[in-house]
C-alpha cells in the first residue's frame, strides 16, 4: 500500500503528471489556483521586482560522476565564497566544499545536497567595472545553489532540490553524453517544470563530442537544444569557447581560470563553424519562438539582444535548453554558465507556486513573492548540525525574520525564530531576514521535512514532494545493550529522509529499515556508526516483494464464540477480487478498495468501520510470505449479527479470517520489483557484462556501443541484483558503473515464489 504524504492537488503546476515507481500521479485540472501567473507581477511592488529580478535559486543535476561537485567548487571559487579549489578525491585531503560529510569525501560522491548562497555579477559587467576602476558597481545577483546527489538511491534529495528551486543547470559529460541518471533527473525536472541550461563538461577528455551530446539531448531527453557556444581547441588543447550569440571568443586565464577574456575576434579556423552553429541556433529558436520565427521569414538576422531574449523566453517556457560547454576540472567555461544562469533562468516571480488554503476547503492559492504578503515558507531539508537541528526553508511569500514567530501549519505549533542563517555548505552566516524568493535556514526548530510555516494569519500548506516507496529492507540490531543512541539516530534519519523507513517486526522483534537501494541503507548504517557511535549487526538485505491475487473468490464466514463469558458473534459475506491501481479524486494512487454493499442492516453500520480496518490491516502483511498485499478489492455484501454478542472485535475477527481464507483460494501470487538497470563500461568487457546480466535473468532492452565505452539498459529483478556493485567492479577492472531505478512490479517466476514461500514457512516455524 502506498502511504504518500503528498498533497497532489497542490503540485506546482496543476497539469503535471507523475509516473514513477509504477505509480501514476496526476493532479486534477479542476484545481485552478485563484491567481493567474500574469497577475503575480501586478501584485509586486517596484522594490519587490527589483530585488526578485536579481535572485536565482538553482540546482545542479546530472548523472553520477559528471562533475557537478567539481563544477560547483569552481562556482564557489569564482563567486568568492571559497578561497581555494579542492578537488573531489583530491590529493590535498580537503575534499570539495560541497561534499562536507566525511563519508561523502571518502566515497567521492555527493550524498546530501548542500545549499549554498553566493553572489554573481555578469562577467562582462565585472570586467567593465574593473576597467572603469570601480566607478560603476556591477549589478549583483544572489544565487542559491543546491548541489544534488547523482546516485539514484538518494533520489529524494534530488526531488527535494527540484521542488524548491526555480531553475537548474544540467551537467553532462562530453564523452558519455546522456546517461541513465541524466534521463532520471530530466524526468524529475519535467515533473516540477524546472527550466534548465545545459553544460557539457569534461570537454578536455579524449573523445569529447559535444555535437553528439546535443543530439542526444534532442532525441533522448526530447528537449529542443542547441549550442550557444563552440569549443576553441579540442580535448586537452581546449582554450575557451566562442560565444555564438555575440560572436566573440571567451578565454580563461590565470592559474585557476579566474581571469576571463572576451575577444571580439573569433579564431580564423573557427569562423565557418561558428556561423554554421549560429544558424542552427537561430533555426531552432525560429521553430519555438514567434518573434524569431517572424524575423526568420522576413530573412532578418536577430541581434544578440534579440537572441538572448528569445533564449530566455523559450527556456522559461521549458521549450528549449541552451547548451554551453567547457571543462570544470581545467577551469574553462564555468563563468559563462553563471552568466547564463542570470540571463536564462527564472527569477522567483516567474515560477508559479501554489499552496492549499486549509481555511477554504483546501482551495489552491498562487503565492506572491512579495515582502508585504503573509509569510509562507516550506521546510525542505533537515540536518543535524553542530548546534542542533538545522531546517532549510524556502520562503515563497512574505519575509522570515530573526526573532519573529512562526506557525507550523502541519503540527499547529507556534515557534520563535531565534537564529536565522544563510548556509554555505557546512559553514553559515547569521542573517536578520530572508525575503520572499530566498532560501534560509533556522536552528533549533522541531519540525519534519515538508512542513509549511506561516506567520499564523493564513493557513496555507505547500504540496509535499513525491515520495517513492522503498524497495529494499534490512534488519538492524545494535551490538550494545544501550539503545538510546540507536533510537535517536533512527528518529533523526526518518525525519530527514522520507524514503528511509523504520518499523519493528512484531514477530521477530527486529528493527527493519527500508530504503531505495543497498547503498542508501549502507550509508545510514555507516552514519549510525560514525555520528552516533552505534555498531550494528545487519541482516541480509530483503527485497520489498508484494502479494496479490488473480481470481475473484466469494467468502462467507461466521465468527462465533458463545460458550461462557461475553459472547462473540459476527458473520461477513461477500467477495474479493483483483483490481488495477487507480487514482482517487486528489490524484493519489489507490491499489486497494473496501466496498460496502450491505443492505437492510445485515451488518449494522457501526460495525462496518471495524470490518474495513481489519481488511486494511490484513493488507499490510500478506499470507504467503508476510509482504504487503496490493491490487485487492474487498466487497462486503451481507452478514449477520447478534443483538448482545456482536461487537467491533467480533466483526474484526470475522473479516480477518474471511479475508485470509478467500485470499489463499484466489490463486495468490508474489510480485517482485523489476529494476531499470543502466550499465556503462569499456567495450572490451561487453561480453562479460552481458553474460552477467543474463545470469541475473535480466532482459536487455537497449544498447549503445561507442568507440571506447558501451552502455546498455536492462530490466532485471531486484532480487537478482544483490552485490552487483562488486560484480561489475570485478568484471570491468573497476571501470564499469551502473545505476538502477525501480520500474514496476511483476509476478516472480514460479520457482522463486516457491522458494520464498518455503523459506518463509521455515522462518515461521523457528
Ligand atoms: N577530465 C575531466 N574530469 C573531470 C571534469 N570535471 C570533473 N571531473 C572528474 O570527474 C570525477 C567526478 O567528479 P565529481 O565532481 O565528483 O562528479 P559529481 O557529478 O559531483 O559526482 P557525484 O556527486 O558522485 O554524483 C572526478 O574524478 C573529477 O575530478 C572535467 O571537466 N574534466
TrEMBL record:
Question: Superkingdom, according to UniProt?
Answer: Eukaryota
The record's section on PROSITE patterns has: G_TR_1 (PS00301), G_TR_2 (PS51722)
Which Gene3D superfamilies did the record assign? Answer: 3.30.230.10, 3.30.70.240, Elongation Factor G (Translational Gtpase), domain 3, P-loop containing nucleotide triphosphate hydrolases, Translation factors
Entry's family note: Belongs to the GTP-binding elongation factor family. EF-G/EF-2 subfamily. Belongs to the TRAFAC class translation factor GTPase superfamily. Classic translation factor GTPase family. EF-G/EF-2 subfamily.
Q: What does this protein do?
A: Catalyzes the GTP-dependent ribosomal translocation step during translation elongation. During this step, the ribosome changes from the pre-translocational (PRE) to the post-translocational (POST) state as the newly formed A-site-bound peptidyl-tRNA and P-site-bound deacylated tRNA move to the P and E sites, respectively. Catalyzes the coordinated movement of the two tRNA molecules, the mRNA and conformational changes in the ribosome.
Q: What Pfam family is a match, any one? A: GTP_EFTU_D2
- GTP-binding as a keyword? yes
Q: Where is the Tr-type G domain?
A: 53-349
The molecule here is called Elongation factor G, mitochondrial
Q: Which gene encodes it?
A: mef1
What GO annotations for molecular function exist for this entry? GTP binding; GTPase activity; translation elongation factor activity
| Protein residues bound to GTP | 62-69, 147-151, 201-204
Q: Which residues form a coiled coil?
A: none
Annotated membrane-spanning segments are: none
**What are the subcellular locations of this protein?**
Mitochondrion
Tell me which UniProt keywords the record has, alphabetically. Elongation factor, GTP-binding, Mitochondrion, Nucleotide-binding, Protein biosynthesis, Transit peptide
Q: Which NCBIfam families match?
A: EF-G (TIGR00484), PRK12740.1-5 (NF009381), small_GTP (TIGR00231)
Q: In which pathway does it act?
A: Protein biosynthesis; polypeptide chain elongation
